Amino acid sequence: MYIKRHLEEEILNTSNAYPVIMVCGARQVGKSTMLYHIKEPARYYISLDDRNAKRLAENDPPLFFETYPPPLIIDEFQRVPSLLIEIKRIVDEKALRGEKNNGLFWLTGSQKFKMMKNVAETLAGRIAIFEMAGLSQSEINGQEKHLFSPDINTIKERQQLFSQYPKKTIKKIYENIFRGSMPKIISEHIDHNRYYMNYVNTYLERDIKDLSQIGKLNEFYDFLVYMAARTAQQLNYNDIANAIGVSAPTIKEWVSILERSGIIFILRPYFNNISKRLVKTPKIYFMDTGLAAYLCRWPNAQTLENGAMDGAFLETFVVSEIIKSYYNAGIEPNLFYYRDSDKKEIDLLFVNQNQAIPVEIKKAKTPQDAHKNFGVLEKINLQAQTGLVICATDELLPYNRQLWYYPLAWL
């Protein structure tokens, strides 16, 4: 059963304006399935996982495109990045002849940043790039697409729409967290542990070997488990290196691999000085909570809900849902968190110039004093706007004039 993706409309509209569309994201999030579902009948599909197609693409790119002419979907495109040069030639030749060249090529790949370097060098101005993650809750529930906004006035305008969403108990929310967001596990109702076991094995045996020459797959697996156990926490390379038994530079490279392959999202701390944001300690979030739960060996949703990591998984779930809403709108997330030397922390900051909307994430229905750290924003010359606490409340409610409760079910 195919589940409609919110990114479909963005892809189709943008394909009318750009010669090349690229959809990047982790393995099995549904990139090729979506493109195949929305393609026009004349558009051919080819995967570079096919050895014959890959060999032809590597050895004779012009013949490859004579055999598979556009409009064309090329799946797992990163396996032969040299094809970009031939794609550029085809696009530019059509433009010189005055022929329509929009929507010629749709590319997918599970190694986004490796691809991006080649794209930037070769197809600048000719390509639109989209990130894709697993299914969002609104996609799973068949609801309308909406970009998450923390602005209370925007939320009130959408309140009538959101009020039609089914209410969810905290038990149901943790069932969704434990299940994860992979299309296959949701649409086919297959065994959770078997699916993620196969997923991890495929990731280690294929993607990891493609991304980097890693000779320590056992240590990398230990690293993957360690990272899952620290989702929603700050990233300390030395601590991880000591725990796994490899060097800190190796850990930095492995973290980069997880980010490049769409397994984790890096959330940076907010600083007025942009250069400081790049070097200060970030937080990491798994983009699929089901994968993180499997790696941490949580046996079921109830144990996870009542376990020591319940808060970290809830925060990971909320952050990943917000990121998906940005991806589905074709927008790069502009999110930060705040933490100072006194260990005062704000889970999320939405910053626009010198104004910021602070957001906290809590498990309770009506958490108290969730805004206790919001005053620290004055120290960094940010004007705090009305904040949110995303929690298990059943409806949008004010805590006071500076803070509102926002239902988890509205994500």
Description of the molecule:
- With 411 residues, the protein is an alpha/beta fold.
- The chain folds into two domains: 7-132, P-loop containing nucleotide triphosphate hydrolases (Rossmann fold); 137-410, no CATH class.
- The chain is 43% helix and 17% strand.
- It has 18 helices and 15 strands.
- The protein has helices at residues 7-15, 31-38, 51-59, 61-67, 83-96, 112-122, 137-140, 152-162, 170-179, 183-187, 192-211, 217-228, 237-244, 248-260, 274-279, 289-295, 301-305, 310-328, and strands spanning 20-25, 44-47, 72-75, 105-109, 127-132, 233-234, 264-267, 283-286, 335-339, 345-352, 355-361, 383-384, 387-391, 397-400, 403-407.
- The strands form three sheets. Strands 9, 10, 11, 12, 13, 14 and 15 form a seven-stranded mixed beta sheet that branches.
- It is globular.
What is the strand and helix layout of this fold?
Layout: H1 7-15, E1 20-25, H2 31-38, E2 44-47, H3 51-59, H4 61-67, E3 72-75, H5 83-96, E4 105-109, H6 112-122, E5 127-132, H7 137-140, H8 152-162, H9 170-179, H10 183-187, H11 192-211, H12 217-228, E6 233-234, H13 237-244, H14 248-260, E7 264-267, H15 274-279, E8 283-286, H16 289-295, H17 301-305, H18 310-328, E9 335-339, E10 345-352, E11 355-361, E12 383-384, E13 387-391, E14 397-400, E15 403-407
Parallel strand pairs: 1-4, 1-5, 2-3, 3-4, 11-12, 11-13, 13-15
Antiparallel strand pairs: 6-8, 7-8, 9-10, 10-11, 14-15
